[in-house]
Specification:
Strand content: 5-15%
Structural class: alpha/beta
Helix content: 40-55%
Number of strands: 7
Largest sheet: 5 strands, mixed
C-alpha cells in the first residue's frame, strides 16, 4: 500500500521562537526543531521543510502574534489552520507544559482530525476591527478619567445636583468650579484636561471609523443592521468587523453559541441544570448586542431616528427589524414581570437579537 505524502506541521508560535513538530499522515511524530519567530526565520525553515518533497499542512494556535503566518503560508501555496486554544482538548492529568509538548500535541491532534480551524479575517476587515477596538480602548480611558475627576470632587464634598452627568449643563458647572486650595485646583484642572483629551480622542476615532467603513465590502450589511432597534452605526460595525461573514453560521443558534450567549449546562440523568452564559465567544460583539438589547425595554415603535436609519433599506430588512420589535419588546416586559434580574433579562433579549442580526445579514449581498 502506498503511504500518504501529507505531513501535519504543528507549530507552537511565540514572539521570539517557533517550535515545530512533524506528524506523518501514516507514520511517526517527531520534533523537527526550533526557529526564530520573525518572517526571515520562518521563510528559511519552510524552505527546508519544502525540500522534503511532501504536502505540508501547517497548524498553530491563535495568539498575540496574529494571522500573518496563516496569510503568508496561504500565499506560498500551503494549507494552514489557525486553531482556538480553548477548543484544543486538554487532559486533566497533564501537568507538564512546554513548547515542544505543545507543538507535538497540535501535530498529533491535527492528524487525528480533532482540531478545527477558526475564521481568519481579510486584511482590510482586520484593519477596521483594530480601529473599532482602538475606539473601545479610548472609551475605557474616557470613563476612567471621568471617574477620577468625580472622585476628586467627592473627596472635597463638591456635589452636582443635576439629573445627569456629562451633559452640557454638567460641563458648564464643572467649568465654574474653583477648589479652595491652589494645589487641589491644579489637580482639578489636570483631571478636566484629561477628560477633554479622552473625549476628543473618542470623537476622532468615531470619525475615522465612519470614513473607513465607506467602500468596505461589508458596508451594505452595516447599513442593513441599523434597521434594528438599538443597533446604531458603531454597534453594527463592531458586530461585523468582529464576526465577519455571518453566512458561515448555518443557523442562528450557532451564532448565539459562538457569541457565548447560551447558558452553561450540567445535566445528568433526569436532572437538568443550567447556569450563567458561557461567555466563550467574541466579547466585543457580545457586548455590542447586549448594549443594543436595552432599547427593547420600551414599547414597539418606529421612532424618527430608526426611520432615518431605515431609509433606503430593503423591505425585507425593515420587516425583520419590525418583527424583532414585536417579539422582543413584549418579551422584555414579560421577563421583567417575573422579577428576574434586569441584567439577565437583557442578556436573554441579546441572545434572541443575535438571531435577527443573522437573518438580516444573510439576505444582504456582500461584494
Amino acid at each position: 500500500m502506498r503511504k500518504s505524502s501529507k505531513v501535519f506541521v504543528g507549530m507552537d508560535v511565540h514572539k521570539e521562537s517557533i517550535d515545530i513538530t512533524l506528524a506523518e499522515a501514516s507514520g511517526e511524530v517527531r520534533r523537527w526543531g526550533q526557529i526564530g519567530g520573525d518572517r526571515a526565520a520562518l521563510e528559511k525553515g519552510v524552505r527546508k521543510l519544502e525540500s522534503l518533497g511532501k504536502t505540508l499542512h501547517f497548524v498553530y494556535e491563535a495568539g498575540p502574534c496574529g494571522f500573518w503566518i496563516e496569510r503568508w503560508m496561504r500565499a506560498r501555496g500551503h494549507e494552514c489552520w489557525v486553531v482556538s486554544p480553548s477548543l484544543i482538548p486538554q487532559k486533566s492529568a497533564d501537568r507538564i507544559k512546554t513548547d515542544r509538548r505543545d507543538s507535538e500535541k497540535i501535530a498529533r491532534m491535527a492528524r487525528a482530525g480533532e482540531l478545527s480551524p477558526i475564521y481568519v479575517p481579510e486584511v482590510a476587515d482586520e484593519a477596521l476591527r483594530d480601529l473599532v477596538r482602538a475606539r473601545d480602548d479610548a472609551i475605557i480611558a474616557q470613563r476612567r478619567a471621568r471617574q477620577q475627576l468625580k472622585a476628586l470632587l467627592l473627596r472635597n464634598e463638591v456635589r452636582y445636583v443635576g439629573k445627569s452627568s456629562w451633559t452640557i449643563a454638567h460641563r458648564e458647572w464643572i467649568s465654574r468650579l474653583k477648589l479652595p486650595q491652589p494645589a487641589q485646583q491644579i489637580a482639578f484642572e489636570e483631571y478636566v484636561d484629561a477628560v477633554e483629551v479622552a473625549t476628543h480622542r473618542v470623537e476622532r476615532l468615531t470619525g475615522s471609523i465612519e470614513r473607513s467603513a465607506e467602500g468596505w465590502r461589508f458596508e451594505p450589511v452595516v447599513h442593513a443592521l441599523q434597521a434594528l432597534r438599538g443597533v446604531q452605526f458603531v454597534h453594527a460595525v463592531t458586530i461585523i468587523s468582529e464576526l465577519g461573514d455571518l453566512s458561515r453560521f448555518t443557523e442562528p443558534r450557532c451564532l448565539m453559541a459562538y457569541l457565548g450567549l447560551v447558558p452553561t449546562e450540567n445535566s445528568t440523568g433526569e436532572r437538568r441544570r443550567q447556569g450563567a452564559i458561557t461567555k466563550s465567544g467574541n466579547r466585543f460583539a457580545r457586548r455590542a448586542l447586549i448594549e443594543a438589547a436595552w432599547a427593547y425595554q420600551h414599547p414597539a415603535r418606529v421612532t424618527p431616528i430608526i426611520a432615518r436609519r431605515q431609509r433606503g433599506l430593503t423591505k425585507a430588512a425593515r420587516d425583520i427589524a419590525w418583527k424583532a420589535q414585536l417579539r422582543l419588546c413584549p418579551r422584555f416586559k414579560k421577563l421583567c414581570a417575573r422579577r428576574l434580574n434586569k441584567n439577565k433579562v437583557v442578556v436573554a433579549i441579546a441572545r434572541e437579537l443575535a438571531g435577527f442580526v443573522w437573518a438580516i445579514a444573510k439576505d444582504v449581498k456582500v461584494a
